[in-house]
């Protein structure tokens, strides 16, 4: 049988392509959207990472999720700096979650509270993605909207505490392979990972509706 890290990666491959090629992402990466769309997207991430990271401290001692909870991954402070840059110091006032984002964050909270295997699925889907494709998004954002390289506006994509992302991802996959769960639970985690991708795609869909190119 394939290792768990291979299983979870393979099982979400198709949905990864779907997320990557969603209209909103393609338009964003293609430099066809204004900075307002990028700011709105960043706001949505804030709700998701608040859900992920407000549970982290409590989950640090959990046998399944605990080994994955690493402070160098935390993104909330970086997102807040980016939002202050993008929206100004009063960014919290107008910061609202799209319905799909509400649903996404609610599911993360539900997993964090009742099922740490599910939390792990969400953790993997976000952080490993940010360490990978996130770097492509950062590069594009810097060039499209003129943010300072690795500076305010794109700090979300900069992991100051991770000198070697490739090595970090390798270690993360090793942790996945060593996860304390039986085959049935691993299957459930894979299913939740697919759900996590679907929740992301739904957010992109709503963002795409809010920022249609033809408007
Ligand atoms: C335009 C957007 C995106 C691009 C260009 C992109 C690109 C990439 C690339 C190049 C990798 C491979 C890294 C490697 O082999 O080590 C990767 C991995 C990954 N991406 Fe994305 N991605 C995008 C969007 C997303 C989204 C929306 C998610 C989910 C929220 C996501 C989740 C992941 C995950 C979990 C991995 C790690 C797979 C693994 O090795 O287990 N990506 N991405």
From TrEMBL:
Keyword ATP-binding present in the record's keywords: the answer is no
- Keyword entries, A-Z: Heme, Iron, Metal-binding
Q: Name one GO biological process term.
A: heme catabolic process
Give a Pfam family name: Heme_oxygenase
Protein's UniProt keywords contain Metal-binding: yes
Gene Ontology molecular function:
heme binding; heme oxygenase (decyclizing) activity; metal ion binding
Q: Name the SUPFAM superfamilies on file.
A: Heme oxygenase-like
Q: What InterPro entries does UniProt report for this protein, alphabetically?
A: Haem_Oase, Haem_Oase-like, Haem_Oase-like_multi-hlx
Q: Which residues bind heme b?
A: 9, 16, 124, 173
What is the recorded name of this protein?
A: Heme oxygenase
């Amino acid at each position: 049988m394939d290792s768990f890290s291979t299983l979870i990666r393979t099982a979400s491959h198709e949905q990864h392509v779907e997320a990557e090629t969603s209209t909103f992402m393609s338009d964003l990466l293609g430099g066809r959207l204004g900075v307002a769309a990028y700011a709105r997207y960043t706001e949505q991430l804030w709700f998701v990472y608040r859900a992920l990271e407000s549970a982290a401290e409590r989950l640090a001692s959990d046998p399944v999720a605990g080994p994955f909870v690493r402070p160098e991954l935390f993104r909330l402070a970086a997102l807040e700096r980016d939002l202050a840059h993008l929206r100004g110091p009063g960014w919290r006032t107008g910061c609202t979650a799209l319905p799909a984002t509400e649903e996404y964050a609610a599911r993360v909270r539900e997993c964090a509270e009742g099922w740490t295997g599910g939390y792990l699925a969400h953790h993997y889907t976000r952080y490993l993605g940010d360490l990978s494709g996130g770097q492509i998004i950062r590069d594009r954002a810097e060039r499209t909207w003129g943010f300072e390289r690795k500076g305010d506006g794109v700090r979300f994509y900069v992991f100051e505490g991770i000198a070697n992302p490739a090595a970090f991802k390798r270690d993360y996959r090793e942790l996945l392979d060593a996860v304390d769960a039986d085959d049935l639970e691993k299957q459930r985690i894979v299913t939740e990972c697919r759900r996590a991708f679907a929740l992301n795609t739904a957010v992109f869909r709503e963002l795409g509706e809010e920022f249609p190119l033809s408007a």
